[in-house]
Amino acid sequence: MQKTWIFLSFFFTLTLFLNCDPVPTKEDTNPVMESVSEEQPTESLLEALNSSDPFTRSQATIQLGSREVRSAIPKLKKLLSDKEPGVRAGAAIALGDLKDKSSSTVIANLMWSDSENPKDVYLDALTRMKDPSVGNRIYPLLDDNNPTLRLQVVDALVQIGASSVGSQILSLAFKNKDREKDKTYAMALGKLKISAAESYLLSLTKIQDETPTLAAAYLALGRIKAKNANEVLVNALNLPYSKGKENASMALIEIGNPSVVSKVFQSLSSENAETKLYATDVLCSIPSKEAAKLAFGLLNGKDTKNWGSAAKIVGRQRYQEGRIRIEELLEKSSTPERDSFAEALGWIGDKASVPVLRKVLLSGAPEGPYGSAWALGILGAKEAVPDLIKALDLGDAKLMVYALEALGSIADPTSLPKLKSLLADRPKMAPQILSTVALIPTEEARLVIEEATKSKNAEVYRPAMEEIAKRKDKKSIPLLLTYANGDDSEKRKLSYYALTAVTGEKFRTAKEWNEWAKRN
């Protein structure tokens, strides 16, 4: 038995490694640039399923699943009854990756009957399967005594979209007497958006024990957009429990009822910094002319302690009537939290504010330049590009980052010469610099990034490869193929990831990429 678990431990470590997806699943997700070894051809892996060595069989199952080799499905289904637990587990994970829903019931049965594998292995497989029909086999595990498994069950139910078992989950929740488990039920009911759970969740908030369960109940009330939770959530902003304040503010924002504005506004007068912070978040995020007017009133008063919060609210509510007053206060060195005032002008979105922002950007003041740089980027102020370039040379590292982000937002090709020279002078800032270059949609920008891949400095060529992957410009394919056939092992492997991102193909070796290139 001990040998079996040693094998499983090694197997699951291998599982985690082999299932790192090198292709970004969203447009704004950075590709994972990790070094991996050259992998076996798919034909060899299919043959390995028949190996007498259990480790070889299990390794092959995982890789075939991650490569989405559908021809392996019949054999993988047979391996669900393999005598080796690691092979059964690997086959289940692979079938999950392949979304073979005809295997869902068998895998769900194994989760309950296979005593040699932990339940979370099969739960992982079912999560990958995305088959909501097995929700009724999964949800009873919410009552398991293992807190880690319970959290995985919540994730599984959400991932497979098992909202159909919401009533069963709620029934279990009402029967539960364990406060710790209440947290799990609150999370599940909230994430699945089971609106019928409102009374149960409200009952959890009656116990002010400052536990994760209380915090989870607040958050879940927001997720189900509870109609009767406003008073409870507003009161929570003024209670001592920090996580409770945070989750209550998030819930109020998600519910989005403007009727809470006047009561939340009163919390700005609190002496507790966290209460003021979360109240400000709520007033910024719920669309409300009332919130903007109340905040603007503060900016016209003499009490400056809440000016920063008021400026944020006026800005986020895009209250045009407040622009001139915010500009006036931004120009005064005595104004507290001047960066908030500058950012507010960016949110309001009137380019009439550009002259003031340019002035403050290069003022050398301890507050104001950072927010001004951000706002100029948001406003797309091309006329401010020379000022932002100057800001790069002021010796303020934080301002440099803000200026780079602004230049990226503006995406003016005239900034390229400076960005190119900055890359040569500050290679450690290559990720930020190249990210800015990549946002400029010109051939010259592409060439700057491609040139950076030729660097011998890993701090430069790694982010350069990453930006090529993100841009998805097919004109970079010839360069990437050069690296795929080159002697530098790391650049070769990074090129595979970039090629996958650019082309949508998923090849694992230089030979396969070369064959693809010949066909295209």
From TrEMBL:
Protein's job: Catalyzes the hydroxylation of the N(6)-(4-aminobutyl)-L-lysine intermediate produced by deoxyhypusine synthase/DHPS on a critical lysine of the eukaryotic translation initiation factor 5A/eIF-5A. This is the second step of the post-translational modification of that lysine into an unusual amino acid residue named hypusine. Hypusination is unique to mature eIF-5A factor and is essential for its function.
PROSITE patterns: HEAT_REPEAT (PS50077)
Protein name as catalogued: HEAT repeat domain-containing protein
InterPro entries, per database record: ARM-like, ARM-type_fold, HEAT_type_2, PBS_lyase_HEAT
SUPFAM superfamilies, per database record: ARM repeat
